[in-house]
Amino acid sequence: MTKLPKGEKNKFSGLGRGLGALLNNEATNSLLRETDNQNESSSYKTNDDNNQRKESLFEKNKVYNVNINFVMPNENQPRKFFDKIKLEELANSIKNNGIIQPILVTKVTKDKYKIIAGERRWRAARLLGLKEVPILIRELTESEVLEQALIENIQRQDLNAIEEAEALTRLMDEHKLTQEEVSARVGKSRSSIANTLRLLSLPQSVQSLVIQDDLSAGHARALVAIKNEELQLSLAEEAINKDLSVRDIEKKIKKALTPPKEIDAQSEAYRLSLQEIEDLLTKSLGTKVQLREKNNKGRIVISYYSADDRERILEILENNNN
């Protein structure tokens, strides 16, 4: 090893500092000049590659504070509805605690970044009039942005059920994915994916109630069983106005979907046969006859209009009995 020039102290004991901080310029230059050129070339190439990889990893996870106007919302953001009250609550939290989690973005141009996840934080920061926001940069394609935004929002439960269903549909269409494949990517069961997608069959009037958080996803899923749009909306509004549980709505739906009992049709036929009996007795006795029946019990009412009429009817009955 080359000795240091006279008069210089050995500073290698200062571990943890860079080479330039440990050696003066003259000593450093002396070391570099006396290093074998071939070994220097190969070793520095390897070191450069390692440094680039480390720097790349470092930059990927580095948080930058940028001008808030350089950050723009994603037009394909799965989340469409932002509750004003909850946004104000988030703004108050940021005012007291700052933005704890950086906004995830992808770079569009030199000074423009598109939000992947964290639009609520960005909107709340704008409400507060903040000049800068912390960002974390990811290099993603447009389709990867959609997928990442969907997964981020689902995992944080930031989407309402309709927004989630629309995002899942788009993810399946653009990436040609099956429900099973989507299930694996977002970490939800296939049945959960299928139930969420069915919500898009509801009329827009009912979907809007879910988006505005007036109607729960559970109530909405129950209403999918009905095909009558007017009845769907009617039950949805009843659930909201009367604060009905999902179970209450399911009972009402079951009642609406249950066809009339077969016994009802039989009862109608039976009522017709009672009328026929009345007609037969009226004709046989020559007077008005009425049958009154309930639960297979009842009475026969025979009308007469004089004592002679009564005796006549009794005579007919006695003769028929003989």
Strand order of the largest sheet: 1-5-3-4-2
Query: What is the number of E strands?
Result: 7
Return the structural class: alpha/beta
Indicate the percent of residues in helices.
Answer: 55-70%
Domain HTH cro/C1-type: 168-195
Protein name: Chromosome partitioning protein ParB
Biased composition (Polar residues): 34-45
GO molecular function: DNA binding
Quick summary:
The chain has 322 residues and is an alpha/beta fold. The protein is built from 15 helices and seven strands.
What does this structure look like?
The protein has helices at residues 19-22, 25-33, 37-60, 84-97, 119-128, 142-155, 161-175, 179-186, 190-198, 204-211, 217-223, 229-241, 246-257, 262-285, 307-321, and strands spanning 63-67, 71-72, 103-109, 112-117, 132-137, 289-294, 297-302. Helix 4 crosses helix 5 (119-128) and helix 8 packs across helix 9 (190-198). It contains 15 helices and 7 strands. Among the domains are: 19-60; 202-258, no CATH class; 266-321, no CATH class. It is rod-shaped, with a radius of gyration of 41 Å. The strands form 2 sheets. A 5-stranded mixed β-sheet has the order 1-5-3-4-2. With 322 residues, the chain is of the alpha/beta class. Helix content is 58%, strand content 12%.
